[in-house]
TrEMBL record, chain A:
Domain of life: Bacteria
Extent of the signal sequence: 1-31
Keyword field: Signal
Protein's name according to its UniProt entry: Transcobalamin-like C-terminal domain-containing protein
Annotated region (Disordered), positions in chain: 44-175
Basic and acidic residues composition bias: residue spans: 76-98, 166-175
Matching InterPro entries: Transcobalamin-like_C (IPR027954)
UniProt keyword Signal, yes or no: yes
Keyword Signal: yes
TrEMBL record, chain B:
Lineage: Bacteria, Bacillati, Bacillota, Clostridia, Eubacteriales
Membrane topology, as annotated: Multi-pass membrane protein
Keyword Glycosyltransferase listed: no
Primary residence: membrane
Keywords tagged on the record: Membrane, Transmembrane, Transmembrane helix
Transmembrane segments: 12-45, 57-75, 95-113, 125-147, 225-247, 259-281
Gene Ontology cellular-component terms listed: plasma membrane
Domain of life: Bacteria
The keyword Transmembrane helix belongs to this UniProt entry's keyword annotation: yes
Protein name: Energy-coupling factor transporter transmembrane protein EcfT
Subcellular location: Membrane
Recorded name of the encoding gene: ecfT_1
Length: 315, 296
C-alpha cells in the first residue's frame, strides 16, 4: 500500500492527465454522433473535412430545391419507388451497407438521388455497431440542414410525411399515469419463404406459422415509445431481445428478437416495425404510441420489400 | 530434464505442433478443449518448468477471468435468459458457457505456443525453412531472438546510464521521462543497426544462395520415420472424423451436441493420443534409461 501511495504521489500529473483523457474519450463515445458536429465545426481547418463540406453543400441545396418543387408529388414518388425496386438488384452491394441502418433511419421518397448516394457513403463509415465519432464527415451537412427544416433533422431523419406523427426524442419523453392500449405483434413469417437462406442452426427457432408473439392487446402508459413497449412485452413473455443504442439516430436499434438476428437470413435481413401499417422513417425509441395503435414488428429478408416497407430504407 | 522429443528431427516437431495448434484453435467441443488444455498445461510444465507456472498464473489466469466476465456483457445471444442487465439486454447462460469455452481455447493455444518455442529453437526454424524461403526464415529466427536479446541489451544500457545518474528512476518527473526516452532511442538505434548487421553478415556468408549446403546435426532415422507415420496417421483419422461432423457441438442459440457417440469417443482417444506424444516420448525414454541403468 505504501508503495502505491508513493507511486501515486510521484506520478500525480501523469495520472490526472490519463484520467482526463479517458473521461474525454468516454464522453465522446456516449455523445456519439451528436458531439462530433460541434467538433467538426471547430476543426474545419482540416483540409479533408473542408473539401467534403464544400461538396455536400451543393448537394444539399439541390435537394432542397427538388423538395420545394414537388411537395404534392409525394404520392406519385411513392409509385416511383416501386419502379425503382426493379433497379434494386443492381444496387444490392450498396444496400448491404445501408441495411444496418434500415429500421432506424429512413429517408422519405422525395429525396434526390445525389443526396441518397451521399448518404450511403456516410452510412458506410458509420456501419460499425457504435457509430461514435466516425461519422464526422457525414454529420457535417446535417448541421447546415438545421437551418432548412425541409431536409434531414439532426438525427439524419428526412421530413415525416404529412399526417404521420413526428418523432419524439426519448430524452424529452414524459410518461404519464394514464393507461392506454395498443395491439402488438411480432412476426417472422417472411423467413418461411426464405428458409434456405437461414442459418441452419436457427431453423428450430422459427415458429411453424412464423408468429413469435400473437396479436394481443397491450397496456401502456401515455408517452411511452414503441421501444419501451417492445422491451416490456419481451421481458414479460420471456422472449429474447437484444438492442443497441445508436446515438447518431438517437434511438435503439433492434439487433435480434427470439435469437433471430439481423443478417441471419441473408445479408438483407433484419427487424423492422410498422405502426398502423406505416413504416416510420425514424427509430423505434422516437415513436410515441397513441391509444389504439397497431404495432407490428416484422422480420424482413429483403430490406423491407417483402413486408411492404421498402421505401423506409431510403430508396 | 531430458527432452527426447526435441532431439527428434525438426520436421517431426514442426508437424506435431502444426497439427496440435491447428486442431486446438478450431475445435470448440468441450471434451476436446479439456483434453487440449490439460495436455498443453502438462507439456508446458514438463518442458518449461517454473516459467510455465509463471505464465499460467500471471498471464493466463487473469486472461481466462477477463474473457469469462467480458463475453456475457457484450454478447446477449442465447435461449436461456438468466436475468437482465441494467441496460435491458439479457444475460444468457449460453454466452457464459461460450465465454468459458473460448477462454480455455485461447489459453491452451498460448500454452502450446510456449512449448513450441521451447522445442523449435531458431536454428531449427532456419533449418526447416532455410531452403524454401531463406529471407523469411532469417527474419523469423531474428524476430524470435529479438525479445530476449533486446531485454538483455536493455539491462546493459540501463546499467551504463545508471552509473552517470541518468536511470529512469532518478530526478524529477520530466527528467525521468527524458531519460526513459533517451534509453528507448538508444535501444531502437541499436536494434536497427543490429538487424542490418546480422542480415549483412548472413549475406556475406552466402545465406540463401543456390547450390549451397549447410551443416546441420539432424538426421532422419528410423525412429523419426516411425514417429512421422504415427503423427500423420493420427492426424488423418482426426481430419476424417472432423469432416464427418463427429464432434459437432454448438453454443448458440442453445447449447446442443452429442458428446458421447461412438465416433466422438474414437475422436477423443486419437486426440488425446496425439496431444500426449511429446510427454509420452520423454517419459518413455526416461523409463528406458532407468531400466538400462539398473541392468548394468
Amino acid at each position: 500500500m505504501e508503495k502505491l501511495k508513493k507511486f501515486v504521489k510521484k506520478n500525480q500529473v501523469l495520472l490526472i492527465a490519463v484520467c482526463v483523457c479517458i473521461a474525454a474519450l468516454t464522453a465522446t463515445f456516449f455523445a456519439g454522433g451528436n458531439l462530433s458536429d460541434s467538433k467538426v465545426q471547430t476543426a474545419s481547418t482540416a483540409s479533408s473535412i473542408s473539401t467534403t463540406s464544400a461538396d455536400t453543400e451543393t448537394t444539399s441545396v439541390s435537394a432542397t430545391e427538388k423538395i420545394t418543387q414537388s411537395p404534392t408529388d409525394s404520392t406519385k414518388s411513392n409509385k416511383d419507388n416501386k419502379n425503382k425496386k426493379d433497379k434494386k438488384d443492381n444496387k444490392n452491394s450498396e444496400d448491404k451497407k445501408n441495411s444496418k441502418v434500415s429500421s432506424q433511419n429512413s429517408s422519405s421518397s422525395s429525396v434526390e438521388k445525389s443526396e441518397k448516394t451521399e448518404q450511403v457513403s456516410g452510412n458506410s463509415t458509420s456501419d460499425k455497431k457504435k457509430p461514435s465519432s466516425s461519422s464526422n464527415s457525414s454529420s457535417k451537412p446535417n448541421k447546415k440542414n438545421d437551418v432548412q427544416p425541409t431536409t434531414q433533422d439532426k438525427y439524419k431523419t428526412d421530413p415525416v410525411p404529412s399526417g404521420k406523427p413526428k418523432p419524439v426524442e426519448p430524452q424529452e419523453q414524459e410518461t404519464k399515469d394514464t393507461n392506454l392500449y395498443c395491439t402488438f405483434t411480432i412476426t417472422c413469417s417472411t423467413i418461411l419463404n426464405n428458409i434456405d437462406d437461414l442459418d441452419p442452426e436457427k431453423i428450430e427457432l422459427v415458429p411453424k406459422d412464423g408468429i413469435i408473439f400473437k396479436k394481443q392487446k397491450i397496456q401502456f402508459k401515455e408517452g411511452e415509445s414503441v421501444f419501451d413497449v417492445l422491451k416490456r412485452v419481451c421481458m414479460d413473455n420471456n422472449i429474447h431481445m437484444e438492442s443497441s443504442w445508436t446515438p447518431m439516430y438517437n434511438s435503439a436499434y433492434i439487433e435480434g428478437i427470439n435469437n433471430l438476428y439481423e443478417f441471419d437470413c441473408g445479408s438483407l435481413s433484419g427487424w423492422m416495425y410498422k405502426v398502423n401499417e406505416w413504416f416510420p422513417n425514424y427509430g423505434c425509441s422516437r415513436y410515441e404510441l397513441k391509444n389504439g395503435d397497431d404495432v407490428v414488428w416484422c422480420y424482413t429478408c429483403d430490406l423491407g420489400y417483402d413486408v411492404g416497407g421498402g421505401y423506409a430504407t431510403g430508396e | 530434464m531430458k527432452d527426447t522429443f526435441s532431439n527428434m528431427h525438426p520436421f517431426i516437431n514442426f508437424i506435431f505442433f502444426a497439427l496440435t495448434i491447428g486442431f486446438t484453435m478450431f475445435i470448440m467441443n468441450p471434451v476436446c478443449l479439456a483434453v487440449s488444455f490439460s495436455c498443453a498445461l502438462v507439456t508446458a510444465l514438463y518442458l518449461n518448468g517454473k516459467k510455465a507456472v509463471r505464465l499460467s498464473l500471471v498471464f493466463l489466469l487473469p486472461m481466462i477471468l477477463l474473457i469469462v466476465l467480458i463475453n456475457p456483457v457484450f454478447n446477449h445471444e442465447g435461449m436461456t435468459i438468466l436475468t437482465y442487465f441494467p441496460w435491458d439486454n439479457p444475460l444468457t447462460l449460453e454466452s457464459i458457457v461460450y465465454g468459458i469455452a473460448s477462454a480455455f481455447l485461447l489459453s491452451s493455444t498460448v500454452l502450446w505456443f510456449s512449448s513450441f518455442n521451447a522445442v523449435i529453437t531458431s536454428d531449427k526454424v532456419v533449418f526447416l525453412f532455410g531452403r524454401i524461403m531463406p529471407s523469411l526464415s532469417l527474419v523469423i529466427s531474428m524476430a524470435l531472438r529479438f525479445v530476449p536479446r533486446f531485454s538483455a541489451q536493455m539491462k546493459l544500457v540501463r546499467n551504463a546510464q545508471h552509473t552517470i545518474g541518468r536511470d529512469i528512476d532518478e530526478g524529477t518527473l520530466f527528467q525521468r521521462i527524458r531519460n526513459a526516452v533517451k534509453i528507448l532511442s538508444i535501444m531502437i538505434t541499436w536494434s536497427l543497426e543490429n538487424a542490418i548487421e546480422t542480415a549483412d553478415s548472413m549475406k556475406s556468408r552466402g545465406h540463401g544462395l543456390k547450390g549451397r549446403t549447410s551443416y546441420s546435426l539432424y538426421k532422419f532415422d528410423k525412429r523419426d520415420a516411425f514417429m512421422l507415420c504415427t503423427i500423420l496417421f493420427t492426424g488423418l483419422v482426426l481430419m476424417i472424423l472432423l469432416f464427418t461432423n463427429a464432434i459437432k457441438f454448438r453454443y448458440y442459440p442453445s447449447i446442443k451436441g452429442d458428446l458421447f457417440t461412438v465416433q466422438s469417443i474414437i475422436f477423443y482417444i486419437f486426440y488425446t493420443f496425439l496431444m500426449l506424444i511429446p510427454l509420452s516420448v520423454n517419459v518413455g525414454e526416461g523409463l528406458k534409461w532407468k531400466h538400462m541403468q539398473s541392468k548394468i
